[in-house]
Structure formats: C-alpha cells, structure tokens
Amino acid sequence: MHVTHLTLRNFRNYASADLDLAPGVRIFEGVNGQGKTNLVEAIAYLSSLRSHRVSSDSALVKFGEDAAIIRAELAHGPRRLSIDVEITKSGSNKARVSGHPVKARELPRYFNTVLFAPEDLALIRGEPQQRRSFIDSLLATHAPRLADVIANYERVLKQRNSLLRSAKSRTVSDAMLGTLEVWNDQLIMLGTEIIAARLALVTRLRPHLAKSYMALVDADHGATMTMRVSALADAKKLMDEDGAGGEIDSELTVEEIREQFTLRLKDAQAREFERGTTLVGPHRDDVTFWLNGLPARITASQGESWSFALSLKLAAAQLVREESRTGDPVLILDDVFSELDGQRRSRLATAIEGFEQVLITCAVLEDLPEELWTRTIRISAGTIVGEQASSHAVRESQDSQAGQDSQAAEVADDAQGEADDRTK
C-alpha cells in the first residue's frame, strides 16, 4: 500500500498543505525546524492514532486553532480509498473512511506504517513501558481487536488498583475479598490473552530481527529478543520493584499461562494489599533485547543501540509485509542516515529496496547514499516548495538518454551502410 495524496489543515506548523506522492523512495529535505518530520508524523498518525514525539494530541493542532485535519488517499493494487481524522483540542477525534464515519480507533486496520525516528533509541535504553507499547502497537496492526483487549485490561487494572489502595488503610473484609476475586477473574482472562499474543509475536519477530541486524552491520552478533513475564515469575522475583519476570524464549499454551498467572496472583495477594497495587500481569512485563548473549540495554554502545533499534523496526516492517492484508507498510525513516557510517548507510539502502513506498527525511542530502537520490521534496517554513528530480537522477536520465541517442545513431549508421552496400 502507498499514499497517493496527503492533505493537512492546521496540523503542527502547516496551515494548509497538499502533496502528491508516488510509490518508491521520496525524500523530504530541508534544514532543521522547517516541518519535514511533521509531514511523516501526520502519515504515521493515521496508522497508529498517536504521535511518536508527544503524548498529547493537542500539541498536533496548530497554535491558535481548535482542530487539525489529516487526510490521505491510499492505493493498494487496483483498490483506492481515503482515510481522514479530525484532531480536536477538546472532545473526541472524528474519523472517516472513504467519506463514511468510523470510530477513530478503527483507522489502523485500513493502513499500516512502520516509522523509525531518533526517539526509538529509547526502545533499547528506555523504560519497559516503551517496549510494551511497541509490542502492543504491532499486535494491534495484526489483530485490531487486541487493542480493545488491552484497553479493557487497563480498565480492570485501574479498578483493581483502586480497590487495593482503599484496602491498604482498612481491615480487609470478606466483601472486599469477594470483589477482588471478581476483578481477579477478569484480570486473568484478559491478561492471559495479552501475554499469549505477545509471546507469539516475539516468536515470529525474532528471526526477522536477527536477519535485519545481520543485513545492517554485516556481522552475526546474535541479535535476539525474549519476553520477561511477571505472571511466570517465582514469588521472590515478584518482590523486584522493576517488575522482573521469567525470561521466556518460546511459546506456552494459553492454559499454561492462565494456570501460572492464577498461582502468581494468589501468591502476591498479601504483598499487593501492603503496597496497594497490582504486582502481577502484562502491565509489569518487559522485552529483553540481547546482543552477543548479553542484555543490549546494559552492554550495547551508542552505535550498537542505534543499529539494534533500526533493525527492530526493519524486522517489524518485514513482519507486517508478510502478515498484513494491505500489503507493504509505508516505511518511514526520520533523520536516520546522519547517525550511520558510510557502510551502514549503504546496507540500509539495500535493506529497504523493494518496499512499495519509503519516505525519508534529511537535513543534508549528502547524508544519503546516492542510489537513494531519486525524487526530493523541499520543505521550508511549513511550506512544500516543490518536488524535483535530484541531480543524480537527472544525470542518470541524461546518461540514459545519451545512451539511447548513441544507440539510435549506431543503428542509423548500420542501416546507411547496408543501403550503400546494396547500391554498390
């Protein structure tokens, strides 16, 4: 799938913008602070309903305005559709698909993107919540209903924590224990589904991660990943403040997960009353990334962490390509190449070959390998200056034309020579 046209109204620093796009590589070029990232942020928002830069949607609305509009026209083979969302500073966002109103949370099922930005370094070095969010967002891409499961789990967790906090300062009554049991049943039911889905996703993602890292660094550093699941941890590990769980590198059955989750929750009940919070469940799980058999979060250098995070996003793009009904995701690389050395830039250019549409932002065109210098879109002060073929592409076109002219001249000369021979 690819975007054929993007329309923005009052989004970030764009009062109004209309941009035609085609398949293949497109480069958004301009000095920092002009609005390059805002364009790709808008496209990515349509597939995730969240920004990779800010936590509040209100920051996406142009200063002084009440709402912003993002609209994209999409193509997947012969199929055409449009999706748009109105982001409001107050109230609920509104969405439409081909002119028909839909719930905003349904948009991701129609359109997929995979975005890599400098902020994604936090996937390796940041907090567990960021890694859980990455996994859950990818889950929703493959199975949109899981977004509802996760939302319901968060609702149950909130209610259960409220009960535990209120019990912290009181004597625990039989009625309170009965209510807790009701929340336990729902927490286990929803949490088991989330844990099983996460484990299955990590299993499918793992070979793509190893392959992508190998392709990017040209060395087998054993890049892999496992899940740390609090519902599968022993009682001692549940005492850890960081929510450490059992390292799982293979799939378990749903029934095995449910049984262990139930036992761990029962074991933790006394401590939960003491602390006033839920100590077991998907909200305390984490993903561990491994490099050369060691945790990447602790041992990877800045360059290794950058390459690992980029490889993780390339792996996600490959998985979406394999499993999505809408074909390739739109691959977005926001200010990536400037952080890579020359060899890894070339390897990244090779790795993204074949994706239906790749959108790249850069401040300096020379940071990109020349083979990517196809079509550039110049951005200046929230204005799309225009699209033009790069000098490299122009030279290729001129060389091609010159070759065709030379070949035509040779053919004409041969034909004239044959005619002369017949005359003689």
Description:
The strands form 3 sheets. A 6-stranded antiparallel beta sheet has the order 2-1-4-5-6-7, with helices on one face. Strands 8-13-14-3-15-16 form a 6-stranded mixed beta sheet, sandwiched between helices. The protein has 10 helices and 16 strands. It starts with a strand and ends with a helix. By secondary structure, it is of the alpha+beta class.
Give a quick set of tags describing it.
424 residues; alpha+beta; Rossmann fold; Glutathione S-transferase Yfyf (Class Pi), Chain A, domain 2; 2 domains; 6-stranded antiparallel beta sheet; 16 strands; 45% helix; globular; SOS response; DNA damage; DNA replication
Quick description:
This protein has 424 residues and is α+β, with helices and mostly antiparallel strands. Helices cover 45% and strands 22% of the residues. It folds into 2 domains: 1-112 and 324-405, P-loop containing nucleotide triphosphate hydrolases (Rossmann fold), CATH 3.40.50.300; 120-322, Up-down Bundle (Glutathione S-transferase Yfyf (Class Pi), Chain A, domain 2), CATH 1.20.1050.90.
CATH class of the largest domain: Mainly Alpha
Strand content: 15-25%
What is the annotated CATH architecture of the largest domain?
Answer: Up-down Bundle
Secondary structure: number of strands: 16
Function: The RecF protein is involved in DNA metabolism; it is required for DNA replication and normal SOS inducibility. RecF binds preferentially to single-stranded, linear DNA. It also seems to bind ATP.
Keywords: ATP-binding, Cytoplasm, DNA damage, DNA repair, DNA replication, DNA-binding, Nucleotide-binding, SOS response
Family: Belongs to the RecF family.
Subcellular location: Cytoplasm
